[in-house]
Design goal:
- Helix content is about 35%, strand content about 20%.
- The protein is α/β, with parallel strands linked by helices.
- The strands form 2 sheets. The protein has a 7-stranded mixed beta sheet with strand order 4-3-2-5-6-9-7. It has a two-stranded antiparallel ribbon with strand order 1-8.
- Helix 3 links the parallel strand 2 (about 50-55) and strand 3 (about 70-75).
- Helix 2 packs across helix 3 (about 60-65) and helix 9 (about 215-230) packs across helix 12.
- The radius of gyration is 21 Å and the shape is elongated.
- The relative contact order is 0.11.
Length: about 280
């Protein structure tokens, strides 16, 4: 296997192909290959796994992933400049690297030819990181694990506990479906151009079973209503869902005067299930 160090330095690739980072695409490139190798090692042994990378840019993380025992790496990129810059990698690894020109928000993992589940490893564009994650949570049946870089504020939100300021919709839905481990933080100076914030690498592993029974759609609607007006008591915040919001809390042992940030994931699932039954009965 050809080592990544045999390729031109990433700064030369950026200069050669005019890869000035585009703010509209949320681009911040990682040039430290030791750091990209650390990210690539975070999912654990990638032997014989199918890996999906989002937004490879000039290919720093791509190189690190190709240094592992990964069976195949699929890199999803929408910037034509980056696709051209990655051609030296596809030439060196014709049987292990495929570049797919597509918007990651529209990508369906079931289109990846694999006899198992995919492992996602990505330095995510900050401006679409949460929509990407929510979309992937809907496709967990195709995903083994996700090792993702977020801005630290978002990473903190994913693992936030009830009662904390960071706890919100994304916390509930992500924790409902995944175990979350914040691996390490990355300073702004590691990027080109440097963002104004610190980043964190997070590993998300799908649970064998969700924390409690609920449907994705109902839990999403309940949390949107509850946290959309998080300063209000639940009896007021949930009025957008049903005429009599107290009915959503019946049997769940939840105080109607409580606020969204105090509820556990399981309690939100109980509300979502009550909402499902009310809808089915024609009461919503």
């Amino acid at each position: 296997m050809e080592p990544a160090t045999s390729f031109p330095p990433l700064r030369e690739i950026i200069a050669q192909y005019g890869l000035g980072a585009r703010r509209a695409l949320g681009q911040h490139f990682l040039l430290d290959l030791n750091l990209t190798r650390r990210i690539a090692s975070t999912p654990g042994d990638l032997a014989n796994q199918t890996v999906v990378e989002i937004g490879p840019g000039p290919g720093g993380l791509t190189r690190a992933l190709l240094e592992t025992n990964a069976k195949h790496v699929y890199a999803i990129e929408r910037d034509k400049r980056c696709i051209e810059a990655l051609q030296s990698l596809t030439t060196a690894y014709p049987d292990r690297l495929t570049i797919i020109e597509q918007d990651a928000l529209k990508f369906d993992f079931q289109t990846i030819p694999t006899d198992g589940k995919v492992t996602i490893v990505a330095n995510l564009p900050y401006n679409i990181s949460v929509p990407l994650l929510i979309g992937w949570l809907r496709q967990l049946s195709s995903i083994k694990s996700m090792t993702l870089m977020f801005q630290k504020e978002v990473a903190d939100r994913l693992s936030a506990a009830p009662g904390s300021k960071s706890y919100g919709r994304t916390s509930v839905i992500t924790q409902w479906l995944c175990d979350i481990d914040t691996a390490f933080t990355v300073p702004a100076r590691a990027f080109v151009p440097p963002p104004k914030i610190t980043s964190s690498v997070v590993r998300l592993t799908p649970r064998h079973q969700p924390q409690a029974e609920a449907t994705f759609e109902d839990l999403e609607r309940v949390t949107a209503a509850a946290f959309g007006q998080r300063r209000k008591m639940l009896r007021s915040a949930l009025k957008s869902l049903v005429a009599y919001p107290i009915s959503l809390l019946t049997g769940a042992d939840i105080n109607p005067e409580a606020r969204a940030e105090t509820l556990t994931v399981v309690q939100f699932c109980q509300i979502a299930e009550n909402y499902r039954h009310i809808k089915k009965a024609g009461g919503a």
